[in-house]
Amino acid sequence: MQQLGRQARQAGRAISKADTGQKNLALLKIAEAIAADSASLALENHKDLQAGRDKGMDAASLDRLELTPSRVEAMIAGLTQVAALPDPVGEITELRYRPSGIQVGKMRVPLGVIGIIYESRPNVTVDAAALCLKAGNACILRGGSESIHSNRAIAACISRGLQAAGLPEQAVQVVETADRAAVGELITMKEFVDVIVPRGGKSLIERISNEASIPVIKHLDGICHVYIDAKADLDKAVAIALNAKTHRYGVCNAMETLLVAESIAPQVLPILAQKYAEKQVELRGCLKTCSLIETAVRATEADWHTEYLAPILAIKIVTGLDEAIEHINHYGSAHTDSIVTEDYTLARRFLREVDSSSVMVNASTRFADGFEYGLGAEIGISTDKLHARGPVGLHGLTSEKFVVLGDGQIRQ
Amino acid sequence: MQQLGRQARQAGRAISKADTGQKNLALLKIAEAIAADSASLALENHKDLQAGRDKGMDAASLDRLELTPSRVEAMIAGLTQVAALPDPVGEITELRYRPSGIQVGKMRVPLGVIGIIYESRPNVTVDAAALCLKAGNACILRGGSESIHSNRAIAACISRGLQAAGLPEQAVQVVETADRAAVGELITMKEFVDVIVPRGGKSLIERISNEASIPVIKHLDGICHVYIDAKADLDKAVAIALNAKTHRYGVCNAMETLLVAESIAPQVLPILAQKYAEKQVELRGCLKTCSLIETAVRATEADWHTEYLAPILAIKIVTGLDEAIEHINHYGSAHTDSIVTEDYTLARRFLREVDSSSVMVNASTRFADGFEYGLGAEIGISTDKLHARGPVGLHGLTSEKFVVLGDGQIRQ
Questions:
Q1: Which of A44, A392, B222, B390 could link A402 by a cystine bridge, Cβ 3.0 to 4.6 Å?
Q2: What is the pLDDT of residues A225-270, one digit of tens each?
Q3: CB contact under 8 A, B112 and A385
Q4: How many Cα atoms sit within 13 Å of A148 on the Cβ side?
Q5: Residue B296 sits in a domain of what CATH number?
Q6: Interval B401-410: pLDDT, tens
Q7: A354-369: b or e for each residue (b if 16 or more CB lie within 10 Å)?
């Protein structure tokens, strides 16, 4: 790992200077290599799938492990999209003259070396590499050991792309050992790694952020809320509450708790209850909710804290905006929260006062996503407060330094 | 401390919602209170100074402890300046329509609660409080125990200012205990504190960043370089190299190593050597330097790594830009580095390739400072890569969340 780290640091310096054209060429050449190798990629992926089945991996994990033709297409499309994004590196902003005569501005610069730790999802290998590369960073990718054949095959495509563009192969390194100690080393190599991005289950992320001595960009939970305000448009409220819960269950931006203003609850909850019933979503409500929805069971305190990632929804009736905001800031995970309202003042207050990484008005929480936000892709989602909040794209993989232009000025 | 933390968290929520006018009013009222209390502030400061002398504090520490009339003036001016700065909180940028119909942008938001740990410099109490307040954060200030009387008196002025503006007094809390364990608790209260800013000597900062479980904004060293390029203007080179070293010795943005291109060294070094001799600056040079400057002693490997904070300068002759950049990225501390050159292409390369928090062309490193950069003031300087690099002002005390405006959009 030390060797990998040293190579990454060196490659990072080269890639930080690479010009935009070179980086874009590398991305497109990687896409070409993947397209050309799709048959052998499928074969390698089958090896992983077979081994996974033999090991008794569950269906959801096998699903994430599989490189279906559409996922390979998505990988290729992702590379092309990232190539088309503006290069963030070197962008100078706010360059202004100061009374002393110097000009002071900020230049966007790469972070250096990014360590990414993720589960057995081979498509993440390409997405992560593409974003790191475009942002001028070297990266060390450590995917789940069950995807080792797929990752090796993808790594070979990435190497070919980098070579074709005249960039150092070590700019993207895939950790090939299944040894768990490698992760422990990766997250403490301060000298060689500047930031760690863990992706996966909560326990993995918790362990990594506790043990890392390198800064970590992460989110632990996605306890997302939709608040249906008294002034909500009923159709929008129903559509959003349904979409936020049922569009996909196992994702971090799915709604887990629905808050409803007391005065609109009798109108909106019966309609929603029926729609949720059709989708077999279990409802757990506060006392008032249960009096409006027969099929709801009583929620306990633990429900407000729970990220179900399943067809279960907690519902609470609140007096109004203040209680909704208080509930969200107390029980939420600072991920994504949405208000449904036609009231201008309340919408404005919700946007400012809800302390989450994504705050929405009249939109489904499911939009909290790098692609939907136009970031091109995301390396992960951050619910921390420093550096980056929400979906982390190219900007989150860079930082800004100060640049000063003078004509010989000295400090008086 | 837990109690302080809880109060800070609560006050932080209130201050994050406070409007700009209210925050500015508080800043101006604090300034008024300090002006009105200047006589009693001086008395309290005298108690600290007397106790410091009795304890045998060194002259430099006593100097930092003293609230001279001009420092009190500067505190008042600082408050007025911060009040005049644009409010960063709530600023929405890059709000753009996406193909789905939603509008996605970023809103600048406070970090929450900032813990600041500093030496016995009472003026820092006001500067730090002003910046935190304007950025919508609550803060917990822990100054050196030798400044306890001064800090209490200043804290009373801050309280009055906050009250006069209708803001919670707990938005700025000064830790009054001299107990060192308080620091240990402050830097691990994850639940109540979002970021720690340590200011002071390297050992203090090192200890805090090793022991903190909360993110730390810090710089350890200021090993700043000036590189005099072959195409440098001789007058600018001499003025900048002299100013960067001798304007003040004990500051982190003073030059510690001078790099000189081989071809210009015979012209520039003798002039500089004479000027440094007049200021009694000790010169430690590489072999080539020593052959040009009789009075220079041979530098050892350790010299390139050293932040002297004293009238000592290391000098190295390099072949050109590549060696200069390599030296800076290897031995520097990513603080502030400057090139003196009239060469457009080399200046442009230096700006991009030197990986420091401030990179300059034809300006003295002494400009690396919040006031000089127009940030109003600085809470500290960061040489880390995440979140903020260089002087940290209002922006560094905030972060950005995503805001999404829709008309009922759902994810397809």
A1: B390
A2: 999 999 999 999 999 999 999 999 999 999 999 999 999 999 999 9
A3: yes
A4: 9
A5: 3.40.309.10
A6: 999 999 999 9
A7: bbbbbbbbbbbbbbbb
Determine, for residues A411 and B372 on separate chains, whether the beta-carbon distance falls below 8 Å.
yes
Pick B386's closest partner by Cβ from A16, A387, A405.
A387
A358·B102 Cβ contact <8 A: no
CB contact under 8 A, B405 and A360: yes
B321 CB-near residues (< 8 Å, 6+ apart): B227, B229, B261, B339, B346, B349, B350
Q: Distance between alpha carbon A370 and the CA centroid of its chain, in Å?
A: 7
Same structural domain for residues A188 and A316?
Answer: no
Q: What is the mean pLDDT of residues B94-107?
A: 97
Structure tokens at B74: 């500067």
| Positive or negative torsion for Cα A70, A76, A79, A85 | negative
Do both B98 and B209 map to the same domain?
Answer: yes
pTM value surpassing 0.90: yes
Boundary residue ending a domain (A183, A218, A253): A218
Which of A10, A339, A409, A412 is the best substitution to test chain B (most B C-beta atoms within 10 A)? Answer: A409
* A351: nearest CB among B360, B368, B403: B403
**Looking at the 3D structure of chain A, how many domains does it have?**
2
Q: Which residues of B358-391 are buried (b: 16+ CB within 10 A; e: fewer)?
A: bbbbbbbbbbbbbbbbbbbbbbbbbbbbbbbbbb
B25 closest CA partner among B140, B154, B134, B151: B134
- Prediction ipTM score: 0.94
Q: Are A262 and A288 in contact (CB under 8 A)?
A: yes
> Is there a contact between B7 and B170 (Cβ–Cβ < 8 Å)?
yes
Domain of residue A324: give its range. 224-367
Quick one: B155 and B207 in the same domain? yes
Is B341 a domain residue?
yes
pLDDT in tens, A181-218: 889 999 999 999 999 999 888 888 999 988 998 999 98
Kindly state whether residues A269 and A301 are assigned to the same domain: yes
**b/e for A203-241, b at 16 or more Cβ within 10 A?**
ebbebbbeebebbbbbbbbbbbbbbbbbbbbeebbbbbb
Residue B92 to residue B124: CA distance in whole angstroms: 30
Q: Is residue B269 included in any domain, yes or no? A: yes
Q: In chain B, which residues have their Cβ closer than 8 Å to the Cβ of A355? A: 16, 109, 112, 401
Is there a domain that residue A116 lies in? yes
Give dist(CA A350, CA A37) in Å, integer.
49
Return d(Cα A120, Cα A145) in angstroms, integer.
Answer: 7
Q: Whose structure tokens read 């054949």?
A: A149
Q: Which residue has the tokens 């960061």?
A: B382
Task: State whether B241 and B349 are in the same domain.
Answer: yes
CB atoms within 10 A of CB A278: 10
Among A89, A111, A343, A411, the strongest candidate for a mutation testing the B interface, having the largest count of B CBs within 10 A, is A411
Question: Token pair of B259, please?
Answer: 């790099």
Query: Is pLDDT above 80 for B40?
Result: yes
Please, are residues A293 and A273 in contact by the beta-carbon 8 Å criterion?
yes
Q: Are A55 and A160 in contact (CB under 8 A)?
A: no
CA dihedral A377, A383, A384, A387 (to 10 degrees): 30
pLDDT per residue as tens digits for the range A331-378:
999 999 999 999 999 999 999 999 999 999 999 999 999 989 998 778
Q: B352 and A406: CB-CB below 8 Å?
A: no
A363–B195: do the CB atoms touch at under 8 Å? no
The answer to whether A141 touches A170, Cβ cutoff 8 Å, is: no
Does residue B411 sit within a domain? no
